[in-house]
């Protein structure tokens, strides 16, 4: 199942810089592990915002929930999830859900 997920990061301005660095580093490691596993096939920056637009390829809602819940930056994110279905006019196979 494919889901479009937008994650907008809102770190507290007074967050300790070292904590911030550790969070960003562990977030990168976590996301790259999932990208290599094929669970997170698209990760795009939303231009001009501390936000990304991602596509997840997971078995079900529960798997997506677990992956998002375990994001190191989860508690500093506003997340919206959009379930995707195949579009009848889509040509590219990788655009099918
Ligand atoms: O920078 C972001 O958009 C948050 C994020 C998600 C995966 C990652 O590496 O950073």
UniProtKB/TrEMBL annotation:
**Gene Ontology molecular function: any one:** muconolactone delta-isomerase activity
The EC number on file is 5.3.3.4
Q: Tell me the pathway.
A: Aromatic compound metabolism; beta-ketoadipate pathway; 5-oxo-4,5-dihydro-2-furylacetate from catechol: step 3/3
**Alphabetical UniProt keywords:** Aromatic hydrocarbons catabolism, Isomerase
Q: Which GO terms describe its biological process?
A: beta-ketoadipate pathway
Domain Muconolactone isomerase per the UniProt entry, residue ranges:
1-89
Gene3D superfamilies documented for this protein: Dimeric alpha+beta barrel
Q: Pfam families, alphabetically?
A: MIase (PF02426)
Name the domain of life.
Bacteria
Can you state which reaction this protein catalyses? Answer: (S)-muconolactone = (4,5-dihydro-5-oxofuran-2-yl)-acetate
Q: Where is the signal peptide?
A: none
Its subunit composition reads: Homodecamer.
UniProt similarity note = Belongs to the muconolactone Delta-isomerase family.
Q: What is this protein called?
A: Muconolactone Delta-isomerase
Organism equals Amycolatopsis acidiphila
Question: What gene does the UniProt entry assign to this protein?
Answer: catC
